[in-house]
Write a structure and sequence with these properties.
five-stranded antiparallel sheet; binds N-oxalylglycine; binds manganese (II) ion; 3 helices; alpha+beta
Length: 214
């Protein structure tokens, strides 16, 4: 990892604490991006990637109106995934050190949006559920230009009508958001759009029953 990793992570986490979200460009080195794209494209070709579901457990269903994207869970098989998970672990430790959130684990999936794909305005976790606490999105799209569309719109809170910011999904950019508080939307694009979305969890135990990530 690069020497300025620690500084970038610390800055991002400080901003997350202040504003509820943060955006940091060039967080993931180009050689790692190449490895991650390779792994994702392999899954696209083998069909090892599925229409994303909305909700959890019994209520999980495909919802073409809310979301048009394919997803596939990350594992530890490839070098790119290993790097990414090690990077996420650094962020987890920094959040716990600086914001005292007591995050326990991380789950993440590759996302592949077809041309015109989208994920409409939503928040990642229900308030008070204390399940997914911090969301992270990392982008894999090389040479993305504003004309391609596909920005990530971020709102301050659920009442806001105008987004605070529109983030280009450019390779290496990493966004952190408080999962219960920050509405966001992946807008449709003129190109295929690739990303990794991940969630830092508390892994709460209800009445002695562990609630695992998957
Ligand atoms: C998500 C999400 C954003 C994006 O998967 O929950 O908000 O830019 N993704 O793909
Ligand atoms: Mn989301």
């Amino acid at each position: 990892m690069r020497n300025n990793d620690e500084i970038n992570i610390k800055n991002s986490v400080d901003e997350l604490g202040k504003f509820g979200y943060s955006v940091c460009k060039n967080m993931i080195p180009p050689n790692v991006i190449t490895m991650l794209i390779h792994e994702l494209e392999k899954r696209e070709q083998s069909g090892d990637i599925k229409t994303a579901l909305v909700g959890r457990g019994e209520s999980r269903k495909t919802d073409g109106a809310q979301r048009d994207v394919l997803s596939s869970w990350l594992g530890k098989e490839s070098e790119g995934e290993q790097y990414f998970l090690a990077f996420a672990e650094k962020i987890r430790l920094s959040i716990n050190r600086n914001l005292l959130l007591g995050l326990f684990e991380f789950e993440s999936q590759f996302l592949h949006y077809p041309i015109g794909g989208f994920y409409k305005r939503h928040i990642d976790a229900l308030k008070g559920n204390r399940n997914r606490i911090v969301s992270m999105v990392a982008y894999l799209n090389q040479n993305w230009i504003p004309e391609d569309g596909g920005t990530l719109a971020i709102w301050n809170d659920e009442q806001s009508i105008n987004p605070m910011i529109e983030v280009l999904p450019s390779a290496g950019t990493v966004v952190l958001m408080l999962s219960e508080d920050i509405p966001h939307e992946a807008r449709s694009a003129l190109r295929e759009r690739r990303a990794i979305a991940g969630w830092f969890r508390l892994n709460p135990s209800y009445a002695g029953q562990i609630n695992p990530a998957n």
